[in-house]
Each structure stands twice: as structure tokens, then as C-alpha cells.
Records
---
Amino acid sequence: MIPFILVLMILPLVLLGLALALGTRARDKWGINLKPVHCPACRSPMPQIRRPKSLRQALWGGGTCERCGCQLDKWGRRIGQSP
Ligand SMILES: [Zn+2]
């Protein structure tokens, strides 16, 4: 019998691991992308060390293209409206 408190401690870790694994497969915000991405608009590579420009970028990854200013998610997909 596993102590209940141990289950309470381990369960969130298991759920987090599951979210990361499924998110990486589905390419959603929970996933982890270790591959370099390029801007979909101007094809310029995104810097590997990113400086988040918003809370969303800090939390979920992605960034703003230095060249054309369009917003990407961590998978290199465009977000929102482009100028
Ligand atoms: Zn760009």
C-alpha cells in the first residue's frame, strides 16, 4: 500500500510529464521544441536564446521576429494579426 501523501506528491509530476509528452506530439503550448525555428514570413532564423517580449512568450515560448516583427509560437507558427 502506497501512502496517500506520496500519491499526492507524485500525481502532479505524472500529469505534468503527460502534458509535456502529449503537447510535444500535438505541438501545442505544453510541448517542448528543441529544434530551431524560422520566421514563417521572412525565413530568418529565430535566436536560440530568446528574450520574451510578453508574459505569454515568457510562459509558453515563442518570440517576435527581429527582422519583420511578426509573432511566432515556439513551433515557428505565426500568431495573431500581422501588420
Ligand atoms: Zn520575420
---
Amino acid sequence: MAESNTYEKYTTFLLMKPSRRISKISPPPIVKLNRAASELQDVISFGQGVPFFTPQSSLFNNFVENFKRQDHIYSADEGIEELRFSLSSFLHDEFHVQYAPSDLILTSGANQAFMNVIFSLLDPGDEIILPSPYYFNQKMAIEMIGGKVKVSQTSNNWQLDLQNIENQITSRTKAIVIVSPNNPTGAIYTHDSLIQLGELAERNNLAIISDETYGLFAFDDSFRSLKSIGSIKDNVITIGSLSKVFGISGWRVGYIGYPEHMLDSLLKAQDTIAICCPTASQKMALELLKDRKKFKENIAKIGNIRKKMILELKQLDPEMTFEATPGAYYFFVNTMAIEKDDNKLAWDLLEKAKVLSIPGSVFGKRGEGYLRLSYGGTDEEKMKEGVNRIKKYIEKR
Ligand SMILES: Cc1ncc(COP(=O)(O)O)c(C=O)c1O
């Protein structure tokens, strides 16, 4: 983890000195946890943020056979036209969202999409409101470019607290970020709260950046893409990802759906950071978008694990409470009664019970005393074994 004095440590190597801005940013401690887990045998992982599936090898072989010269070189900055058409109809069919192909930019994942958007919106010192617990890379990105994060605490069941969001607004606020379905809580924000959020943003002339990376991992019917809500005006920027839906996080395909007036500034950021989403990855995405049935089957399997895991988690210590949230593939379990220090608990669980989990404090102060358990990467047997190991660990303490 970066120490607060990293900057001073490097002052002797003047040319190599990291910027004050980057020195202030702490990388999430989960890198160390993941590394330690990979060095152990027989670990059950509730840690990973990726689903259990990857594309079928037949599809991959087909992709390689049809590879052409132009697939090796840059595409247009905004992405291959055919893919933008395909993505536009995908977003329409799945989320009832109208984004014309010309209103979509393909990026190297949703993380880069977020970076493009904040580069386009923020001047140094400008503020963005992040409901907490938050996705830590977003906080890091805002601070890295000289912006300021204003944290807004979510309610007891991890929903947006609109009054609290309003209280964070100042003359420097540019945008509110929402992640629904949410990482790390699994919450899906209610339709009503999204309508009210839209009104609040409009009243205060703010943008809303809606991260819908987990939009298809919604295990009830409550998910609404923000842009699909009729009363929401033209201040919404949608970012999304194919990483999770198709199990292709390593191929780096994400997107931005944006209001027309942002095109020029978004393209400046795109061209400087990545030029384009890797062309080969775009071609792969095009293949994957043709087969909607397969990914739905995979997601339904995760939905089944979710139901079973709820039953298993209820058998744990009654003091370990959790909301059976319907989205992404995460449960955020309150472990304060067992151990207040979530970081210590996660390490202890890894070393003594061989279960990998993510400490909630990684996602901000509101996550202290919680563990994030991911059920996206496990099968039923491993899930049961993992929860059982946690149970035994608690009993032995
Ligand atoms: C909320 C959220 N947004 C974005 C990302 C990054 O997605 P990508 O792989 O498309 O960069 C993640 C990855 O875990 C995430 O949880």
C-alpha cells in the first residue's frame, strides 16, 4: 500500500519523482490479498469480480480464422461502425435505451470510459459526488486527475440517500456518479430514486454518470438504465462494459453513451488515452453480441447460485447480517459482530479458512466492518464449501 510519505521518499531521485497527485493515492490493498491467495492451494474464492464463464472455444476459433489485415491496426477512434450499430440495438433490446450508433464510443473497458468522461467534464478542484460504498477505481481516477470526491453515504439497505446527495452539492460540483447494480453491495437503485435523482441533477445543473457495467446481472425486474427513464434529460452519460456479460474482462471492451455536445471532448480524451478500443477485441465483441442466448444462460446460472447462497449465508452466525440484494454478483456481509477490522478478518479467513473475500473498507469508510462476497465465479459445490469454511472458522474462534 502506498505510504503517505512516498513523495518524500523519492525526493533524492528528482527526475524519477512521482507527482504529488499520484503519491497521495492509495492503491486498494486487494492486490496483495489476491497475490497471497494465488500462492495458496485449494482456496475458495469469493473474491473475484469476474464471472465463471469465458467465450466458447469454437467461437474463438472462428474469430481467428476470419481475422483480416485491418483487424491488426487502429480502428476509428470511436470504434468500428458495425459494432456501434450492434451495441446500439443490444442496449435498446436489453435496457430499452435509445443510443444511436453515433452516440456511442467503444473504449478499453468501463474504467477507461470513466476516465474519458471525467477528463471531459472536470477542471482541477471540481467535485464529483460518489455514493458510498463506492467502486474504488472511480475515486482513484477522480483524484488522479486533480478532482475532488465528495462522498455521500447510502441508506441502511444500500439505496441512494437523496437528501445526503443534495447536502454534498457545492458550487464546484460537476457530476454525481451512480453504479447500479452496485459493486460492492449488489443493490439496484429503485425506479423512484432514479427519477428523483434526475430531478435533483437537473435542478442543480449537474451531470449524472451512470455506470451500468452489471446491468444484465439483475436478478429481479427492478433494474432501469438511467437513460431509459422518460423524465431524465440530456445530462446522463452512460458507461458500460462487456467484461462481465461475456466473461471477456481481459479483452477490454467498454463503452460510453453520451449527449451529442460531449463528442469532441470525449474524442480528445479517447485519442490521447487509447486511440481506440483494441480492434481485435472489437471484432470479438461483434461475434459475441450475435449470440444473446448463451450469455443469458450463463447469467441465469449465477442467479441460481445467488438464491442458494442466500440460504447458506442465513445459516451462518445470526449476527452476520446481510441484505439479499438482487444485483451484480455481490453480497455485502456485516461482520462487525465477529471482527470489527474487516481487513484483518479477510486476511485471517484467507490464511486459516482458505476463503478469499474482499474487505469492505476498500470501498470507503461506509464499508468498514463488512466483507464483499462474490458469487459470480463459483459453482454450487464450491459456494457451499466456502460458506461452510467461514462457518467453521467462526465456530473455532
Ligand atoms: C462498477 C464497475 N465499473 C467498471 C468496472 C471495470 O470494468 P472494465 O473491465 O470494463 O474496465 C468494474 C470492474 O469490476 C466495476 O465493478
